[in-house]
Every structure is written in C-alpha cells, then in structure tokens.
Amino acid sequence: MEYHLVYQLFPRSFGINNEIKSVIECFEKNYESIKSPDNNLSSDGVLKVISKDLEALNFRVEKSKLTNDKIKVPVLFGINNRIDKFFDADAVSADGKIVIEVKAGRGYRNNQFLKDIFQACMMPNVEFLVIAVRNHYHNSDDFKSIFQFLETLYISGR
After folding, report:
1. Per-residue confidence at 11, pLDDT binned at 50, 70, 90?
2. 30-42, pLDDT tens digit by residue?
3. How far, in Å, CA of 92 to CA of 71, rounded?
4. Rounded to an integer, what distance in angstroms lies between the CA atom of residue 35 and that of residue 28?
5. Cβ distance 108 to 138 under 8 Å?
6. How far is CA 20 from CA 8, 54, 129, in A?
7. Taking 80 as the threshold, does the pLDDT of residue 135 lie above it?
8. Those residues with Cβ within 8 angstroms of residue 107's Cβ, 6 or more apart along the chain or in another chain
9. What span, in angstroms and rounded, lies between the C-alpha atoms of 51 and 137?
10. Would the pLDDT of 98 be above 80?
11. What's the pTM?
12. CA 104 to chain centre
C-alpha cells in the first residue's frame, strides 16, 4: 500500500491559514525521511528531523526529554503570577498560538490524542493544535482512526 502525507483541519468549515500551511510544509519537505512504514522513527526521531524547519518558523522545539529541554506551556497561575501548572509540548510557535504534538506510536491506541486535545484546550493562547501521527502503525492507520473520531465529534454538534 502506498502512503502519502495527509492532513485535515477541524472544523472542516475553516480553511488552512498561512501559519498552519507553513507547519504542514515542514512535514512535506521531510516526508521521505519520516514516512511510515518505510521509516520506523520514534516521536523524538520525527521531531529531530523536522526541528530545524520548525525553528526557522520561530517555533520552540523540544530538544530532549531532559527537564531543561522540554517546552513547558503554563496553564494555571497562582499568587504573584507564579506558574502552578504547565503541560509539555513538542513544539510551540513564538506567539503561543500553535502547539505541535508528534505521536509515532501511541497516538490512537492509547488515546494520547485525547490527552493532547485536552491539554491544548487548557493552554491560554493556543488557537491551533497540530497532532502528527503515523499513517501506518501495527497494521492500522492512526490518522484515519483519529480523523473518524474528530469527524464524529464535530458532526455531532455537541
């Protein structure tokens, strides 16, 4: 089976803006190096491949799982504006409006995409969440499965 880069913006009644198109182009430019099942990269591996292109767009990108290399996005503030709660993101635009999460294996099977959606909803400035998942993972298509889930959510109108 031939795999291609596929993407969908939700709700489907919106068009893709220039900032999101630029993020998509980072994946398109590097597709041969990251596509599944030809490349069995981890999430960190995919992020490493596209990081320079994202940084050229002024994104902060997680460098490693070390505490100082993670991208912490504050979600709850306390006394004297102290950060009481934050969530980690794989990449965040300079203005904080776009969050990127790369999932090379746990995207659908472990419902990680639902956690990513919840966390992005809690981030005060976020307008767009990009969830990058594999087309092929253990004989399933994570993109298709997540697409169907989100399509059902938006069509339900709830």
Report:
1. confident
2. 998 988 777 788 8
3. 8
4. 10
5. no
6. 11, 11, 10
7. no
8. 113, 131, 133, 134, 137, 142, 146
9. 22
10. yes
11. 0.91
12. 11
